[in-house]
Amino acid sequence: MALYAIGDLHLSGNVDKPMDIFGDQWKQHHERIKTSWQQTVQKNDTVLIPGDISWAMNLEDAMIDLQWVDDLPGKKVLCRGNHDYWWSSIKKLNSLFEKMDFVQNNFFVHEHYAVCGARGWNCPNVHRFTEHDQKIYEREAQRLRLSLDQARGAGHEDFIVMLHYPPTNDKLMPSLFTEICEEYKVNQVVYGHLHGEDSHGAGLRGNHNGVNYHLVSCDYLQFKLIQIL
Hints:
By secondary structure, the chain is of the alpha/beta class. Helix content is 28%, strand content 20%. The protein has a single domain, classed as Purple Acid Phosphatase, chain A, domain 2 (4-Layer Sandwich), CATH 3.60.21. It has helices at residues 29-40, 59-70, 90-93, 131-153, 176-183, 197-200, and strands at 3-5, 46-50, 75-79, 100-102, 108-110, 113-118, 158-163, 188-191, 206-208, 211-215, 226-227.
């Protein structure tokens, strides 16, 4: 049972939000993702999707996009992105689909790993970081810790973390998120949010202090899923 990841699907089945306004590389991006997915993922595999799934503003409008994801092969585990305004109560979301799980203050299991996560937030930086940012940053770090504590309390010792926002600032400085991942000896971290060549370079990648970090924004992956395990 392989584990794959791809983030920032930015689907727009029920809203007028074509992604090619951000460049030709986004033309028919959902079909390119679908092709890669169908060629790669088997029914017993799992795909992590760290946020920005649908442009819809409410759950009713997002259902066409969520169904599109659910119809693809494999099990899916999703966390919230900054554009997922449709995100409803976690209990309601987790009652909708048999092959799709939503992470928020909880965890799901892939083989012997616990998949944990949170949306995350901008990390402290010199460009713009307000008192309001600080509150959300600390809250999201606490949500990540709560997710990991839930898994540890259930007896798990091996962890994979999903974040939507990068776990560091653009200078790749340590943050509450990296500190928590190191504290819990997290094996893999996947995150998205960064788009375009200028932004992709601001993402932490590779092994840092024993934790493996993966930027999985779909445009960074050229709209192809990446295998994590």
